[in-house]
RNA sequence: GGCCCCAUCGUCUAGUGGCUAGGACACCACGCUUUCAAUGUGGGAACCCGGGUUCGAUUCCCGGUGGGGCUACCA
């Protein structure tokens, strides 16, 4: 049994996107599960589409996600002689030929075929040319000489056997005029050279599988096992793309999604364990992943469920870990001063833990702890409560709080004291607690007053109650 | 146009000839509650269509339809 080797092979034409992350994840899971190796290969054979920083972005985000690869990344642009050598071999064996057709001729050929509603493919003009290859002075590409008869059987781990009619296959370009290989040649050569046992990639590659199989055969190699993953989809069911929302892993990271949550979510897009388990650690996924349970149909990327999973992870994080993650977020929002006590931040964050879906939504939720909140007097009275009654209540509680020693300024003690007062004065819950909470937070929605009070501290709390009472006159 | 893939609640999915078609997210209601969350309980919500095969099809076969992908000197 040969050692399993998988690879993730993005082209550096942009940031790592969510679909790439899932492809990388499945490659990673399978390799780890089989105690094989997971490799990274940079497919940068198209010099015109290179984006500066893309390689870094991809590597950085894979690292953030914890998908560690086992060797230094392989970069195709550094391996040109390798592809050249195999191209020559194909030329020599008659499996490939030079083509000097110009881009203009190909373009008009295509237009013509489209107009006549014919299959659009190379017409084989240069293939038919016998005799000496053109001189080096004439720009030429190298094309694969597809067999023109027969059926190519392709076995896919997820879809089973797929049959292609050779006559419908195009004479793919293998080497471009600039001497760089195309994807087809480069990936076949590299997967062989890197001893990749399982090619796990997106379904968009399914139509080129027969071409790749034929290439392996022409080079005298045994093809690896293929698995084509279902596509990730936009809400309109087209292939996931930038136009309907965020697709860069970066953007999710910045919005405050945890890598564990993103991975968990993306793992479930196209795969399921067959049980009712929804939450998986990476280790869980490694143990449970299997191609038999990968779906065939595309999956819509559903933000709501991602938010739910992320919220789940946030809620189940030990609070000190959540604080560590929240700190830079609050910092960036400008809420922290050098003098802000760590202990205070800890208590503030703890109050919102059950309410968070993303770290990024933390600053607006807790701002009132750091700055005096704007106050809308109309918001203070409870339902039909009069402004005068509301004011009386606030002032009474303010003086009650003022009279309390600092060591009794705890959630429990405060609750006991306030409830006692409510009972004595026959105040209802709504008429008391709603104005109290709004006066403290300035918000319609927030944690309860007895949770806020001890965090805010006596001085600030009393000041806010008095200010609120003032606003009612 | 050609080639290929796919088809269960709005979404992610379980299901592999006989089930009240299960779960999760979202949604709604109720409970807990001063609000918002969290949490508990309950609810509405699906087998694309037509032919076969079969005693019986969501499930198997064929054909439609629908959706998607590919069809570059891009990956």
Compact description:
The chain is mostly helical and 473 residues long.
What does this structure look like?
This protein is mainly alpha-helical and 473 residues long. It has four domains: 5-76 and 232-306, 3-Layer(aba) Sandwich (Rossmann fold), CATH 3.40.50; 79-229, HUPs (Rossmann fold); 317-370, Helicase, Ruva Protein, domain 3 (Orthogonal Bundle); 377-471, Arc Repressor Mutant, subunit A (Orthogonal Bundle). 45% of the residues lie in helices and 10% in strands. It is built from 19 helices and twelve strands. The strands form five sheets. Strands 1-2-3 form a three-stranded parallel beta sheet. A three-stranded antiparallel beta sheet has the order 4-5-8. The longest helix has 16 residues, at 18-33. The mean pLDDT is 95.
